[in-house]
Design goal:
This protein is an alpha/beta fold. Strands 3-2-1-4-6-5 form a six-stranded mixed β-sheet, with helices on both faces. The chain is elongated and about 75 Å long. It starts with 7 loop residues before the first helix and ends in an 18-residue tail after the last helix. Belongs to the TRAFAC class YlqF/YawG GTPase family. MTG1 subfamily. It holds the Pfam family MMR_HSR1. One of its GO terms (biological process) is translation.
């Protein structure tokens, strides 16, 4: 499956971000802790060159805790400040104000020497679709300032939000990049719901997710659905389809004539993964940090 999704509004959104960057002191970039590299838009690195950077590992509560700290160390090694958060519950958000001050201390000191006191830090909140930017802003502000939704593409334009005297946030639409050079990156983005499901073959996507789980999280599918892998060697997508049929059977997903409804089972599996009902799962690992 070769996944590409770059609707026209993203070109307009990127252009608006480029025009706003001169007003910005700091970029707060949200990534999905389950796929921290795949959920980073490489365009933001070039866009934010010379700006202070904070990476928020959002949905850290859904990712494998063994790897959250490893990813935090990885991004710190790239020169970013890092905070693990759950924007929906508010976990980790209390740390951010202090991290903002630390990330922008040179700018604040320059302002002080020039006699500019109490000018708020202006931060752009950036990230790919459905990574939780608007939910973060609302939780951080303690009120509904930005539209939220569980589908990509809810935020359509830039929006300034003044949180307090020391910090202003610019909410930006989620943007991807025009072409995924790494096919597996597109697949992981589809797994976590950052690609519009309407353009996807959900059965093939579910079969690919099964391949990943069979390799890196064996036992999760058996525990959730009460199925057995028996002597299956799950090395290619055909094995994924076999397991998908087992899930359909276990959950009573049937079509007329008693055929198994694998399309319904695929939706069920993807929803269980995205809702963390399969447990905490990380889809990719920092270099040299993958554990057996």
């Amino acid at each position: 499956m070769n996944i590409q999704w770059y609707p026209g509004h993203m070109t307009k959104a990127k252009r608006a971000m480029e025009e706003s960057i001169k007003l910005i002191d700091l970029i707060i970039e949200l990534v999905d802790a389950r796929a921290p590299l795949s959920s980073r838009n490489p365009d933001i690195d070039s866009l934010g060159r010379g700006k202070a950077r904070i990476v928020l590992l959002n949905k850290a509560d859904m990712a494998d805790e063994r790897y959250n700290d490893a990813w935090a160390a990885y991004f710190k090694g790239q020169g970013c400040h890092v905070v693990k958060v759950n924007a929906r519950s508010g976990a980790g958000l209390k740390q951010i104000s202090a991290v903002v001050q630390e990330a922008c201390k040179e700018k604040i000191e320059r302002d002080r020497k020039r006699g500019i006191l109490n000018r708020p830090v202006r931060a752009m909140v950036a990230g790919i679709p459905n990574v939780g930017k608007s939910t973060f802003i609302n939780s951080f502000a303690g009120k509904a300032c930005a539209k939220t939704g569980n589908k990509p593409g809810v935020t359509k334009g830039n929006q300034w939000i003044r949180l307090n005297k020391s910090l202003e946030l610019l909410d930006t639409p989620g943007i991807l990049w025009p072409k995924f050079e790494d096919k597996t990156a597109g697949m992981k983005l589809a797994f976590i719901g950052s690609i519009n499901d309407n353009i996807l073959n959900t059965e093939e996507l579910a079969a690919q997710l099964i391949l990943f789980l069979a390799q890196d999280y064996p036992g999760r599918l058996e525990e959730r659905y009460g199925i057995s892998f028996e002597d299956l060697d799950i090395k290619d997508i055909s094995g994924g389809y076999v397991i998908l049929e087992k899930i359909a059977k276990a959950r009573g997903c049937l079509l007329k004539g008693s055929a198994y409804d694998t399309a319904k089972a695929a939706v069920l599996l993807l929803d269980d993964f995205r809702s963390c009902r399969l447990g905490r799962i990380t889809l990719e690992f920092p270099p040299d940090k993958k554990e057996d």
